[in-house]
Design goal:
- It is a single chain.
- This protein has 377 residues and is of the alpha/beta class.
- The protein has 14 helices and nine strands.
- The longest helix is centred in the N-terminal third of the chain and has 29 residues.
- The chain starts with 12 loop residues before the first helix and ends with a strand.
- 33% of the residues are buried.
Length: 377
C-alpha cells in the first residue's frame, strides 16, 4: 500500500538562525524544532543540543561545547558548524525573535495542511474536520502571550455548560450532566444503544442531535421510540424534531457544516467506523481524534464502544474496557461501563475529567418494552 510521506518546508538561513538561537537560549524546546526544516549543519547542532538535554543539561547551552559535540562526535564539518554557530550568536533571541518564530509556526502549519491534503488526495477521502483542527490548533497557539490576570479583566468567563438528563437524575447528580466527549462501553446486547438513544432523545429537546447508527437500522430505532411513546405519532414527531438520523458517517463534514454547535453527535458504535483493514487500529484512533477536535468546537459527543471478548462476563468496571482503540481512554471526558445485574444493568463511571466522582451510579431497570431506562439507586 502506498503511504504519503510527510514533507517539511526548509527554513531560510535567517529563520534557521533565529530558531537555533532560541534553542540555545532555552526559549524553545528541542521537540519544538523539526529536523527536516534545517540544513545539515543545523540538524547536527540540533542533535548535539538534544543529547545535552538527554544527559540532564539545561539552557542556556554553551555554544562551544555544542560545536565540539556536533563536530567531534556527530561528524559535522568543523568550519560549517563553527560558521553557523557564529551566525546563531548574532541572531535575535529577545522580543524580536517572537515574531520570527511565529513565521516559522505559520510555515509549519502550511506544511501540515499540504501534507494532510496530499494524504486525502491519495485516499480519496475529504477530511474537513481534520483540516479545521489544524487551523484551530495554530490559531490558539499563536499571538501574544497575555497573563491570565489580563484575560480576566472583564470578569470570569462563562462556566462549562452541562446538559442535565432528567430521565437519569442520579447520573446527572454524579457527573453534572452531559458535557464534552462521553464513552459508553459494555458487552453486546447489554443496553448501550438503548442508553445512547435515550440520551439522544432527551438532549434533542434542547439542541440538535446527529445520530450515526451502524448497529440497528432506522425501523428498529423508530420502533423503540414508538414503544416509549406508546404509539403516539404526534408525540414521537415532537420528540424527534431536532434529531437527525444517519446510517452512515460519510456525510460527516457536510452534517457538521449544516448543524453548528452546540449540538450532540452520537456514534453507535466506534468499532464500526470506516477504517482500512490493514490499519484498523490507527484508523479508529484517527476517528476518535476527529471527534475530539469537533468537541473542542463546542459539540458534545457520545461514543458507544464494545469491550474485548476476554472481558465478557466479568463484573469489573474499567477505563481500559474500550475495544480496539485506547485513544478513547485519553480522549473521553467521561467514561461509562455497563455491567450485568439481576435487576437490569449496573452503570459505572470509570473516568471523569470534570469532577471527582468515579464509581457505581445506579442500577438501570428497563421499562417500555425494554427500550427505556429508569434508575434504581
Amino acid at each position: 500500500m502506498n503511504k504519503t510521506r510527510n514533507k517539511e518546508i526548509p527554513l531560510s538561513p535567517e529563520l534557521e538562525r533565529v530558531v537555533l538561537a532560541a534553542l540555545l537560549a532555552g526559549t524553545l524546546a528541542v521537540d519544538g524544532v523539526r529536523p527536516g526544516e534545517l540544513s545539515k549543519p543545523g540538524r547536527l547542532i540540533l542533535e548535539a543540543i538534544t543529547r545535552v538535554v538527554a544527559d540532564g543539561g539545561r539552557a542556556p547551552f554553551d555554544s562551544s561545547a555544542v560545536v565540539v559535540l556536533a563536530t567531534d562526535v556527530l561528524g559535522a564539518d568543523r568550519e560549517a558548524a563553527a560558521g553557523l554557530m557564529a551566525d546563531i550568536q548574532r541572531a535575535p533571541v529577545g522580543s524580536g525573535a517572537a515574531t520570527v518564530l511565529n513565521q516559522v509556526a505559520e510555515r509549519r502549519l502550511l506544511a501540515d495542511v499540504l501534507n494532510s491534503v496530499s494524504e486525502q488526495l491519495t485516499t480519496g477521502k475529504l477530511d474537513l474536520v481534520g483540516l479545521r483542527g489544524l487551523l484551530d490548533s495554530h490559531h490558539t497557539s499563536g499571538g501574544d502571550l497575555v497573563p491570565v490576570s489580563d484575560m480576566l479583566s472583564g470578569g470570569f468567563p462563562d462556566p462549562p455548560s452541562f446538559v442535565p438528563l432528567k430521565s437519569l437524575p442520579e447520573l446527572t447528580g454524579k457527573v453534572g450532566g452531559l458535557f464534552g466527549l462521553w464513552a459508553i462501553a459494555g458487552e453486546p446486547k447489554i443496553g448501550k444503544s438503548t442508553l445512547a438513544w435515550q440520551m439522544a432523545t432527551e438532549v434533542g429537546q434542547v439542541m440538535p442531535v446527529l445520530f450515526y447508527d451502524f448497529e440497528n437500522g432506522f425501523p428498529v430505532i423508530i420502533n423503540r421510540i414508538r414503544a416509549v411513546y406508546e404509539g403516539d405519532l404526534v408525540r414521537v414527531r415532537r420528540a424527534t424534531r431536532q434529531l437527525f438520523y444517519r446510517p452512515t458517517i460519510n456525510t460527516f463534514d457536510g452534517d457538521i457544516a449544516r448543524v453548528p454547535a452546540p449540538a450532540l453527535l452520537v456514534v453507535d458504535s466506534v468499532q464500526k467506523l470506516p477504517a482500512q483493514a490493514d490499519f484498523r487500529r490507527e484508523g479508529l484512533a484517527k476517528w476518535v481524534h476527529r471527534l475530539e477536535t469537533v468537541k473542542k468546537q463546542g459539540y458534545h459527543v457520545i461514543l458507544v464502544s464494545e469491550i474485548p471478548k476476554m472481558l465478557y462476563g466479568t463484573q469489573v468496571a474499567s477505563i481500559g474496557a474500550y475495544k480496539e482503540t485506547g485513544e478513547i481512554e485519553y480522549s473521553a471526558d467521561t467514561g461509562f461501563h455497563l455491567l450485568r445485574h439481576p435487576d437490569g444493568v449496573e452503570l459505572h463511571v470509570v473516568a471523569n475529567r470534570h469532577g471527582p466522582y468515579v464509581g457505581r451510579v445506579s442500577v438501570l431497570r428497563r421499562t417500555h418494552g425494554g427500550w427505556w431506562f429508569v434508575e434504581c439507586p
